[in-house]
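Homework help thread (please don't just give me the answer)

Our assignment gives two proteins as sequence + structure token strings and asks us to describe the second one. The first is just a warm-up. Here they are:
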Amino acid sequence: MAEQLLHMSVSCLISGRKFLLTCIYGLHSIQHRKPVWEQLRHIGQQQITLPWVVLGDFNSVLTPDEKHGGLLVTNREIRDLADCVSFLELFDTQHVGCFYTWSNNTGHSKIDRVMVNSTWLQDDLDIYTEFLPPGCISDHSLSITTVFRESRRRNPPFKFYNMWAAHDEFESIVQEHWVFYGKGTTQFVLKKAF
């Protein structure tokens, strides 16, 4: 445990599988974040042979296209995280939901992530993350990560049966549920409407 990270070993009670988990909270300035990247490198150099998940608020983007609005991203801002991720061979998990995970209503950034090491990928373990819209509880997206659920169907098809349209109340039901009056980000309102 350190100021900006918590590192642990996790054992699944159902499958018996073990993996390492590191939770990150990167501080707000580049200089104050430097120790967390050094500590991650140190953990990674301990011959990690188990699958490893690194997640949390990194407070830094990996690439300039992960920020929209506000000041432009400089190479100095992304260098430390990018070097650390490259050194440790970490990769973003498959994810759905919001791309930008933080918003102050004028700027949006992807500063929250869930990443795995190459061992996780080589073992072909199942993991995916859903990033919910920011603004409900915090200006960050809530992330829900699911692991070891191998039976998950990917992209199930939408099916519409014509018999539904023949129902007497079909149009009124669709009209009633189509309109959604809600508050929040545009993404949140769109998601709740459907």
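The one we have to describe:
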Amino acid sequence: MSLNDKSPETSLNEKSEPKIDEQDVLPVPKPAYTAFTSRRKWFAIIIVSITGFLGPLTGNIYIPILPQLQQVFNTSETAINATVSVFMAIMAIAPLLWASWADFGGRKTLYLTSLLLFILANILLAAVPANIGALFVLRIVQAIGASSVMSVGAGTIADLVPPKERARAISYFMMGPQLGPILGPILSVIASGGHWRWIFGFLAILGSLVYLVILFFLPETLRCLVGNGSRVPMNGWFVQPHLIQRRIITEEEACNYPKPPKPSLKGYWSILKYKPVLLCSFNSGLLFAGFYGMSVTFARRLHDDYGFSHLEQSFAYVCPGVSLITGSLIGGRLSDHLRKRMKRKHPERYTPEHRFSLQLVGLAISMCGLLGYGWCIDKHVHVVAVFVFTFLGGFGMTWVFVVTTTYLTECSSGQAATNVAIGNFFRNACAAVSSVLISELTDKMGFGWCFTGLALLDIIGFAIVLLLMAKGPAWRLQWEEKKRGVAS
């Protein structure tokens, strides 16, 4: 037998295992980021945006009627302002609890649970006798119910929208919360003539309608439970209502979607030690303190210094409200454009921290707005100038805010809602302190110097942004390596 002859066994093996040309092997296509259709995805974003409208609406519909409530409840200006502070304080703390469970047990469950508390609190506020103690307690419950949506909503966006389009989607989502400062004061006119209870009745009705829309039309999106949504059971636009979503993807598929550990105090402390989240959140808190000091004093100064009626005060809030929306939309689009350009020119060098360069512009605009607003009020400059600087303050703040929120959804995998909730904690905590102290500070320091101090806090923001741009990539790499080490 020659060396070229082949045995029958060899021939049989060759027939049973034919050679495959490497060119015939096609790469396994990568699953789409989301299996929801574009229409279904944007419908979900609209739903969570409307839901996000409830918290800011609840806070801002209340502010213009503070003088009326001060008389009805027979209390001091400081005490009635404290009902704003306690609301903001709870809005700061409660999302930490809501969001961690939303990253672990499902988005929809948290929406439905928190909204029930919100509806109940507003029904009681509309019905119980006027008592300052009851007002404080029910404002706390109201805030607990309204607090989940900002952080959980950002988590829903992260589930549905890939990073390359996320800043634009978040800017649209933020239009819901940002309509609160516009429509809240306008809608407060239903309290004119002493009918302040109608405000809480209106909020209860609106909350109930939103609850039904979420129950029947919003699918669960948490990726460690439903993956990219390809297996979520739906009948057209209708979703079978249920409170708890069980995991519907396999164990193997679940490995592709990071799942955070169960919520715990240790877990919160670990995330707070993560420098990018901590610094981002602290920066947003300082910025929001200045804006909220401006927002809380705006109506009273227009009334006392410029003779605005209650109706005129309410419509005046259109100015800062429009500034929030325009700053968000422009900042979001520019942030995505900056990411796209950097990925195209230097794909190997791109990091999420590149978005921060836009924040330097927003911080400068915010600083100008706070300085101008304070000194215009102090020197009784024409009211048009007050509106211009109020617009700039809101525009710069939300320009920074949309970039920060987008970054918080990108800087750590599997816990977008928790990261945004920590940012929300710092913002609302600073707003609570600002709203309770601003009257005393302006009385003792004068408006000009008080708001000069608030504006100078933005210098800290400049330093934080530059630090994150320089050190953020290394900090993120260390964090991810640490998470992988714990998981293994």
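TA reply:
I won't write it for you, but here's a hint about the kind of observation we're looking for: Confidence is low (pLDDT under 50) at residues 1-18, 20-26.
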